[in-house]
Amino acid sequence: GAVVSQHPSRVICKSGTSVKIECRSLDFQATTMFWYRQFPKQSLMLMATSNEGSKATYEQGVEKDKFLINHASLTLSTLTVTSAHPEDSSFYICSARDPTDDGYTFGSGTRLTVV
Amino acid sequence: AQTVTQSQPEMSVQEAETVTLSCTYDTSENNYYLFWYKQPPSRQMILVIRQEAYKQQNATENRFSVNFQKAAKSFSLKISDSQLGDTAMYFCAFMKPQGDDKIIFGKGTRLHILP
Fold this sequence. Notes:
The structure holds two protein chains of two kinds.
Chain A: E1 4-7, E2 10-13, E3 19-25, E4 32-38, E5 44-51, E6 57-58, E7 67-73, E8 76-81, E9 90-98, E10 103-106, E11 110-114
Parallel strand pairs in A: 2-11
Antiparallel strand pairs in A: 1-3, 3-8, 4-5, 4-9, 5-6, 7-8, 9-10, 9-11
Chain B: E1 3-5, E2 10-14, E3 19-21, E4 24-26, E5 33-39, E6 46-52, E7 60-61, E8 64-69, E9 74-79, E10 88-95, E11 103-105, E12 109-114
Parallel strand pairs in B: 2-12
Antiparallel strand pairs in B: 1-4, 3-9, 5-6, 5-10, 7-8, 8-9, 10-11, 10-12
């Protein structure tokens, strides 16, 4: 089946620094990728939709300049949390859509801790 | 805007019993997809079952089946012969194809299978 690889699985960074999270579709070309944030014991909140070769579409209330999304190829999207603060600590999950079957596959998530 | 409502925050059942998780949604669309996703403690999102709205037949996947009532906008999940490994968060989700393609999640139901 379709596989999406997300790295790193865990990252700890200092306040004020930036951290990049990668999301790769391993065996299909993902024209669209999605980035979610999940707080403990809560649902997934969509942050942005990433389309290959174009600017990401951000959901209302999500800061574009803080959460930079790049979708440079059909198999790779990256989320960069810039100038991270402790309140950015969360679980981030990516999802990739396979246009051949409308299937959505999720990465295994990244636990970000900002200290 | 589409919304997904899961009215049961938490449920517990004995192993081997049957359990039904409720989900309702609100949309003005006629063509859409509905999903049930499972999120075990590992936090990996796993697709349990998918239903296309144009199909009248309820989707089934082994011990998992849905009761899709389009007019009532209801999409419940039935787990038969529940197993300890079914313990997880279950999210009901909605997607409108050929639009923004983003998946909207409900708040989830935490299911405990008791030995």
